[in-house]
Automatic annotation (TrEMBL), chains A, B:
CDD domains: GST_C_family, GST_N_family. Residues 84-216 form the GST C-terminal domain. This is Glutathione S-transferase. Homodimer. It comes from Sorlinia euscelidii.
Length: 222, 222
């Protein structure tokens, strides 16, 4: 069976899980505590990061967006990148937006400080970074709201990796109670639609020792 | 004519210039001072970042790696991603390595502090960041050296976007004299090969007011 090395609250890992599940490609997950990883894991991904997908015949695919592009090329079925050049540009623009801009401005400041430091036992949360993360999150929720107000899905008329990448980040932040949905009605409507997809179910049942998600985290009608 | 909005010392912009030139796709460049950009540019790229490629018929493609994927799909000719699934995974892994990991660990600390702050007139260089950038650069030069010692090109047997992304970053750092090539003989041999390609010529003639590149910057036999 193919294996996905992951961490429950890693947005890139969640993007990979959603990408596989949307395509109904079966996989097993293995938690990889990257701060303890040795040579075996470094051989799979020299960046020492999750996710890494390993096919049954041994092919290793490291990184959320690399896995997304790989699945599109290696497996048949509906596209999650889009059909036209314009759609594919927009999907990749947003995939990059979430994996780089949102990550640097929000997720690294909130998940990095509040989750990664705690579970790895390395460092103490930096209050300045956390405050910056919250401030940036408001701007990003407005942008997600604006996109979902003007389009059926974030990238356009159909569900794409743009939705999966955005939902991957937001679901991690929602798990630690960092999203005030009352301030973001349009983003909330869009997130409710993504959250109710079968591909999302496993994410809603994630457990992490020492963290208790708020009651609305699992609620499809939050 | 298609237009590339860029900044001379933006690694992502240089990746786009190299990607277009390697494919012999003609383009004009326009310098876009993103810290002054208004609504017109934000409509092309809401992230307010260069590069943005605008085709003659109006299609806008924002971001170095998005442009790389777009060129691969929109234009015929030799691939810069690789032919097999394995090659394309390795190219994208390294493209991501340079555009995210190298950028965050090295370029943001050196180019961001020493160049971007100066030309935009915003902020003063942070010595701690600069020291971190130099320390991380040594590790990355070793990794580039290891790759080029064991393969013809960074991604494998042929030139790919992995080489162009790496050379885009290193050429910006070389312009400000931040690379000690005497410490990195294998990386230097690889860089000399990339630097002597016709696609690189325009980059070697870049000028930036207030910055004088070291004499070896333009030298193909440095």
């Amino acid at each position: 069976m193919r294996i996905l090395y992951h961490l429950p609250l890693s947005p890139q890992s969640r993007l990979a899980r959603l990408s596989l599940s949307e395509r109904r490609i079966p996989f097993e997950t293995r938690v990889e505590n990257v701060w303890e990883s040795g040579e075996d894991f470094l051989a799979l991904n020299p960046a020492r990061e999750v996710p890494v997908l390993v096919e049954e015949y041994g092919l290793a695919v490291p990184g959320g967006s690399v896995i997304a592009e790989y699945l599109e090329e290696a497996y048949t079925g509906a596209t999650l990148l889009g059909h036209t050049l314009e759609e594919r540009i927009e999907t990749r623009r947003l995939l990059n937006w979430f994996d780089v801009k949102f990550h640097n401005e929000v997720s690294r400041n909130l998940l990095g400080e509040k989750v990664d430091k705690r579970i790895s036992g390395r460092g103490t949360p930096d209050g300045t970074a956390i405050r910056a993360g919250y401030a940036n999150l408001r701007f990003h929720l407005d942008y997600i709201g604006w996109l979902s107000e003007t389009r059926a899905w974030l990238g356009g008329a159909q569900l794409t990796y743009a939705d999966l990448a955005a939902a991957a980040h937001l679901s991690c932040l929602d798990f630690i109670g960092d999203i005030d949905w009352s301030r973001a009605p349009f983003a909330k409507d869009w997130y409710a639609r993504v959250k109710s997809r079968p591909s999302f179910r496993a994410l809603l049942h994630d457990k992490l020792p020492g963290f208790t998600p708020p009651p609305y985290y699992m609620d499809l009608d939050f």
